[in-house]
Design brief:
The structure is a homotetramer.
Chain A: E1 8-12, H1 16-27, E2 31-35, E3 51-52, E4 64-67, H2 72-80, E5 94-97, H3 103-114, E6 119-122, E7 125-126, H4 129-133, E8 138-142, H5 145-158, E9 161-166, H6 170-199, H7 203-212, H8 218-222, H9 224-229, H10 238-254, H11 260-274, H12 285-292
Parallel strand pairs in A: 1-2, 1-4, 2-3, 4-5, 5-6, 8-9
Antiparallel strand pairs in A: 7-8
Helix pairs in contact in A: 2-3, 6-10, 6-11, 6-12, 10-11
Chain lengths: 309, 309, 309, 309
Amino acid sequence: MADASKTKIGWVGIGRMGYAMAERLAKGGADLTVWNRTRAKAEPLAALGAKVARELTELAACDIVYVMVSTWDDVREVIAGPQGLLSGSRSPKLVVECSSISLEGSAELRGLLGARGVQMLAAPVSGNAKVIKAGRLSFVCSGPSAAFEAALPSLRLIAPAASYVGEGELSRIVKICHNVFLGVVTQSLAEITILAQKAGVPRHAFLEFMNQSVMGSTFSRYKTPAFVNLDFKVTFTPHLLRKDLDLGLDAGRRFEVPMPLASLTRDIVQTMIGRGMTEEDFAKLLVLQAEASGLTLEAENVPVSDGLS
Amino acid sequence: MADASKTKIGWVGIGRMGYAMAERLAKGGADLTVWNRTRAKAEPLAALGAKVARELTELAACDIVYVMVSTWDDVREVIAGPQGLLSGSRSPKLVVECSSISLEGSAELRGLLGARGVQMLAAPVSGNAKVIKAGRLSFVCSGPSAAFEAALPSLRLIAPAASYVGEGELSRIVKICHNVFLGVVTQSLAEITILAQKAGVPRHAFLEFMNQSVMGSTFSRYKTPAFVNLDFKVTFTPHLLRKDLDLGLDAGRRFEVPMPLASLTRDIVQTMIGRGMTEEDFAKLLVLQAEASGLTLEAENVPVSDGLS
Amino acid sequence: MADASKTKIGWVGIGRMGYAMAERLAKGGADLTVWNRTRAKAEPLAALGAKVARELTELAACDIVYVMVSTWDDVREVIAGPQGLLSGSRSPKLVVECSSISLEGSAELRGLLGARGVQMLAAPVSGNAKVIKAGRLSFVCSGPSAAFEAALPSLRLIAPAASYVGEGELSRIVKICHNVFLGVVTQSLAEITILAQKAGVPRHAFLEFMNQSVMGSTFSRYKTPAFVNLDFKVTFTPHLLRKDLDLGLDAGRRFEVPMPLASLTRDIVQTMIGRGMTEEDFAKLLVLQAEASGLTLEAENVPVSDGLS
Amino acid sequence: MADASKTKIGWVGIGRMGYAMAERLAKGGADLTVWNRTRAKAEPLAALGAKVARELTELAACDIVYVMVSTWDDVREVIAGPQGLLSGSRSPKLVVECSSISLEGSAELRGLLGARGVQMLAAPVSGNAKVIKAGRLSFVCSGPSAAFEAALPSLRLIAPAASYVGEGELSRIVKICHNVFLGVVTQSLAEITILAQKAGVPRHAFLEFMNQSVMGSTFSRYKTPAFVNLDFKVTFTPHLLRKDLDLGLDAGRRFEVPMPLASLTRDIVQTMIGRGMTEEDFAKLLVLQAEASGLTLEAENVPVSDGLS
């Protein structure tokens, strides 16, 4: 396994997630060059030793280039656009693509890179910016196993856990499964939290127990403040959750796997959207559940831990 | 808070769970007297310093008596039966009842004890014997808050986490909610695990990632060997899970809380039972899901961690 | 088979349903004596040749007494109360009980009657007052087959169809199944009607086709005015539908039959109740469905047939 | 409205459905020319006065040409293929397309026809060959309202009911809604039939009542022999039902209409397919339901009416 500190690493995309990930690389001592459309957002990383590039082509000399942007259009632009990573004569050995893109986009990207002799690791993640900062991110990776081995030292600087699940775009399916599960788990938590509340148990007491129980997860813990104090500042919108549930159901059709809990959760998320709850966090499933139970929710105003900070 | 080592503690019920719990008390230095219907099962605890009682009445001199038996009938027998804990002239100050009994049974027990001036803490748990041994058990408690305070030092010797959720039998509702969630989570895991497998991801690789992800839980980790290697030695039967789902749905009716994911999971567990999968662990939901997907499962024969040992 | 015109028939209960049923008997030439708590409601039947009794005991001389009241408490009162049908020395040969009561109530009633040597036919119906007037009612009957044969001539005067399904209280289960189906069918009609509307098809055009299609039923036709013109004057409340769905699910538990569509419909009806739609007809499931689809419904104000008048 | 007997009508497709429809036109006195790929299948219609064409182009001189073939590929071939209806210099005024094709296919066909100045009526049907013969078919039509008016006299010779639901391909959506409903209704009937059976009511007695009740439909009646005597000779395969449910769910996504009962029924049909029940009629949902209820079904061997013959 290569020494991460001698590998030249490029980073494309300094949004909330990208910043936190690149920051961990920089703090971990990586030889890092970053690029962001809005260059100013990348500047703070210079204080941690990172170089800040003006052009994407400057990253082409790196061994490994990580990409963490928003959409498939953004990914294509930064890789294969007129000023993209591949627009000069050089190209890196390996691209690690971490954005949430579809199987089809991922396969197209692999083709574009392969035509230039660049290997690709599809590497979506589980977690948000706070999870990254808390050192609790996890990667799920697919592509050539050699590419995974090559990336592992730098992946480990970013996250304690990186799983390799196989060739091609398999990690994209796994990420979709993960998000389907996230939707089902949230709806089920909403059902039982409202039941416990109507029976007389305050939400903070109920969730404290659930979080400590064998069923507790990093996720259940970091959603607890939203459920207890009704802070629904968006981390993931109902529309995005519906999209991922639909991707899961599409995969279920293709592979002939019935997914009744996923289907039903999908319809509940659609109901939430139909009822106009579109601009806040999908955790407002709790509010939908309360309404269906004849209950008007109020914030409990109890300080609760998110398990991260 | 009282010093656990000076409090005299009685323990009734040395089954798989009860043994593991009492063993932690003994190893933690508690002044412990245990009783079990089959006395021989309790003997090994003597080597750890516990006294082994011949009669339940011997425990009446304790400050706190824990009860961990199987059914409500057993609970009533050991407390209020002809040779029960209360059959002599003395009685303990507090009974901590940890068995999985109904709200109605719990309330009746509180009445029986109250008539003799004994306080009661309803204290069901989250976890199995392996979880206890690994020091990961959690209690959810209800009853007088003073009773919770009094029990806390000894609860902490058994489990790192003990939540207090309120008066009366509220902890029974919370335990039911916990088990409803456990059913939904298992069915959802079955759906996505089979989807991932049909897409090409081995179950062990898929679950390794899920367990490391923000969605991973102690539960998902200790069910992983069953899902990967198809070891369905029973820990919790489909009939018991159906019973708890029905208790959850009954509570949903009473408190007018619709629980669509719980309802659907309940019907899937019934389907499992109707198809004759009754004698093995409820984790066979994975097999039911595979059949519905036209897939014959085979053990992967990959050593995987259960996260406990 | 006996001649209906020579059989002396008693009728208890002149509500909306009872009036319409008794009216058909009277118009059919039956030798009819009616009783109602509020006697005035029964008077119009005198003009059709019926006798109006002052006391329930006057009906004890009849061969067959029909009962059509509201609740099990009402049934018990009119049969076995201090001034009830059995409070004198005589008793009829046969009671035909048509109210919507539970299996348990039905069995208890059979016991009360049997102790006095009175046979009982449990005979709930499918249809409302308009259906009766249109000559489209149907009975489902259980009890001794001889009782069914004896009642058949008079049943036929009331309704064109009377099915015999077996001994005891089996007809009560069948009625529950019927109402479970009614709930599921209404929810499914709500789903597809809103889908068709959002795609551009007016509700009256959509339902005209559905009613004419092989899927059309007397029920789908008589609910059409409600769906098209949003007239939700109550015929059957959400609470009553929820009760029957719960009875169906209870039977499903007892006989170990999973009923996923019934379960889900039940939870949707609960949601409707939780959202406060309790005082109008259960056909407001259409409104709930529209809201979940981001659609505000307006009456189409198109005259549509209910298929009855 | 034109006189159907003076309008020259062409018919393409003499399968089971097509034969029964064309036969009604011929018996009704229409001036009819038929074409079928296998000419022999059309010959019997000559005895009823129909002309049998050798080439599709012979039908181009007709006023109205009906098309009733299997798939979109067949439709395109017979209309726009090298030997298709439009392959000569003439073309009919109106094509009435009755096959079960998608919205997209329907729109493409309308374009192909429009380019040659031919109007099109999209006219899928509700019913099978036996329904047609029994004179109980219904059409749902969309396209120019003038085209509907022009076709009405001949539509009425085939079927008593023809609904017009609007412009374009709206009738395709309505047909999809119809089939979604058919799936949900069948699953719900399966649930309650098995519940009634396990409670002690024979299936034939249960369904006799349901068919006579306000919930009974032409469909419930003609599925009764399958449910009672387990004759699952295919009329509609599980794969075709799944396809239509998926089309319904796709439309639900597009128009943002959650369809929980349709989703769940879809997953149950998938389960049926996964379990290998693919070659018989979708009414085998009854068998799936019985298995989930721990019941082995046996034919009742009771003659029951299908309500048609």
